[in-house]
Amino acid sequence: MGNNHSSSSRVNRHNNGTMRLKNKKSKQQLMEREEHKESAKSRFHLPKNDQDIDRMQLQHFLFKHIWNDENYSSPIEQILKSGDCKVLDAGCGPGAWLLEMSTQHPLTRFFGVDIAAVFPSEIKPTNLNFHQCDINRGLPFKDNYFDFVRMSLMATSLKTDQWVNVIRELVRVLKPGGHLELIERELQVYNAGPHFTFMIKNIMSFKNSNDLNVYITNQIPLIFSSIPSLTGIQTDFRMVPIGPLGGQSGLIYGDLLDMYFTNKLGDILPKFMNITEREYLNLWDRCQSEFNIYATTVKLFRFWAQKVVVNNDDDEEDYNDNNIEEGVGNDDQLEN
Ligand SMILES: C[S@@+](CC[C@H](N)C(=O)[O-])C[C@H]1O[C@@H](n2cnc3c(N)ncnc32)[C@H](O)[C@@H]1O
């Protein structure tokens, strides 16, 4: 008995030890997983991986196609051919728009900035330069430098309180007479089924909880009108279909959303919704089935305006005066 008891105690002690070890290990694994998810959440505004970068590139071609194959709406055709034109794409990502435009307009000089160096560093046209910088800390260019400035799909990158300053910074580097163009998609969806409506509602709450402004698209014209040096404000939009009922474009956008929901959001949204990844993927499957029944769409907007020609420098005095010479911009120089 005694032996049995002691051997069973040993077994128990051993088992308890293993259990403690297992508990410790799974607790540690859990903590690591939580840390990974937290850091995934805090890096949500950055491109996640190669698939996410591919998604952005494909999306550029789809959105251009939906816009009658036009890469811009501002009246810049003539200046692009002039041989004395400079263009900036802020938050350019992998640079699909810039690569295409710089190839089509060899006389114009193109510049792209992004906080993440996901743009090509070597294989690119010679009239195209990229700089890594945080747009919230000011752009590494002189005042009144560009003829055309664009910024596309930054709604998940800029926090609510950053938008006005960023747009002012874009206006600062724009020449009087030059054009500013912003491209954003509404987060609201039209004619969605119940599961996709539920999913979008959760994405909105998730973005809200990350200080992102889920209604920024509709507020851009108001921000433009609050900047005295912008005039001729214009808005246009296109409906982007999702799924087979939207033809080829709908199928492609359905695939892009599949990449977005399973890859980009796949590890953070289930946690936010307090469901398992399997439950989340089941929910996404149901959303996809709904695209066969509901002709769901989203609205893609373009906003553009011209910077007024001013006779004195007063108009610029409020803007960030942290000017840096052309072509030398990077984070280090911004800190100096
Ligand atoms: C959704 S992607 C859009 C990329 C591209 N403009 C497009 O339309 O496909 C947002 C981009 O903004 C960049 N970004 C996020 N925060 C930024 C910041 N503070 N300064 C500069 N770029 C930023 C990200 O790295 C990412 O490449």
UniProtKB/TrEMBL annotation:
Residues 87-178 form the Methyltransferase domain. It comes from Rhizophagus irregularis (strain DAOM 197198w) (Glomus intraradices). Residues 1-16 have a biased composition (Low complexity). PANTHER family: METHYLTRANSFERASE. Gene3D superfamilies: Vaccinia Virus protein VP39. Residues 1-49, 315-336 are annotated as: Disordered. CDD domains: AdoMet_MTases (cd02440). Transmembrane segments: none annotated. Residues 30-49 have a biased composition (Basic and acidic residues). InterPro entries: Methyltransf_25 (IPR041698), SAM-dependent_MTases_sf (IPR029063). This is Methyltransferase domain-containing protein. It holds the Pfam family Methyltransf_25.
